[in-house]
């Protein structure tokens, strides 16, 4: 059975239309995917610019932090020389008219805060003298330039006995 020319043309046109529909559908799918990829690319470029700005800000913050660390390190002695600080304490005690009942300088202990390591000498200074002189002694230790890395932790004052026990920490930065 032979098909007529009209049927052949209609089938041919149907195949062409089906092929065109498939091609148009694939084309629009590709256009949609291209638009999604362009949107993702734009978002990635915006994120990249933001990350570059954040990186610059973090670099600036790191530089500032390193500068502050350097400045802070300069305020600490390189090492805590017990003899040297002992001499300073005796000088101040003599100037303030206070006496020590005993004095012991322990070895420095190492402490760490993050990546910074420093040493600490904890002293207990039992002194005797007039209350005003003891206060002057404490104030001198807190304000003397030789003791910039020193912290007075506590003072136990015995007013009736004319004495006090002063707890002091001396900090040194281990470079």
Your description of this structure?
This protein is α+β, with helices and mostly antiparallel strands and 175 residues long. It has two domains: 1-74; 82-173, Ribosomal protein S6/Translation elongation factor EF1B (Alpha-Beta Plaits, 2-Layer Sandwich). The chain is built from three helices and five strands, in the order ααβββαββ. Strands 1, 2, 3, 4 and 5 form a five-stranded antiparallel β-sheet that branches. Strand 4 (150-158) and strand 5 (163-173) form a beta hairpin. The longest helix is centred in the N-terminal third of the chain and has 70 residues, at 5-74. The mean pLDDT is 81.
Number of strands: 5
CATH class of the largest domain: Alpha Beta
Architecture of the largest domain in CATH?
2-Layer Sandwich
Structural class, from helix and strand content? alpha+beta
Helix-strand blueprint:
Layout (H helix, E strand, L loop, with lengths): L4 H70 L7 H14 L3 E2 L8 E5 L2 E13 L2 H13 L6 E9 L4 E11 L2
Antiparallel strand pairs: 1-3, 2-3, 3-5, 4-5
């Amino acid at each position: 059975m032979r098909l007529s020319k009209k049927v052949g043309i209609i089938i041919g046109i149907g195949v062409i239309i089906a092929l065109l529909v498939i091609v148009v559908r694939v084309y629009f799918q590709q256009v949609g995917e291209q638009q999604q990829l362009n949107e993702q690319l734009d978002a990635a470029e915006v994120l990249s610019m933001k990350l570059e700005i954040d990186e610059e800000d973090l670099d600036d913050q790191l530089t500032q932090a390193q500068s502050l660390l350097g400045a802070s390190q300069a305020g600490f002695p390189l090492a805590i020389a017990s003899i040297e600080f002992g001499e300073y304490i005796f000088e101040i005690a003599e100037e303030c008219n206070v006496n020590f009942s005993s004095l012991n300088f322990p070895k420095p202990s190492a402490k760490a805060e993050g990546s910074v390591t420093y040493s600490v000498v904890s002293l207990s200074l039992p002194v005797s003298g007039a209350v005003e002189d003891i206060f002057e002694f404490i104030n001198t230790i807190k304000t003397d330039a030789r003791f910039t890395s020193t912290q007075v932790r506590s003072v136990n004052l015995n007013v009736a006995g004319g004495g006090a026990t002063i707890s002091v920490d001396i900090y040194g930065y281990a470079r």
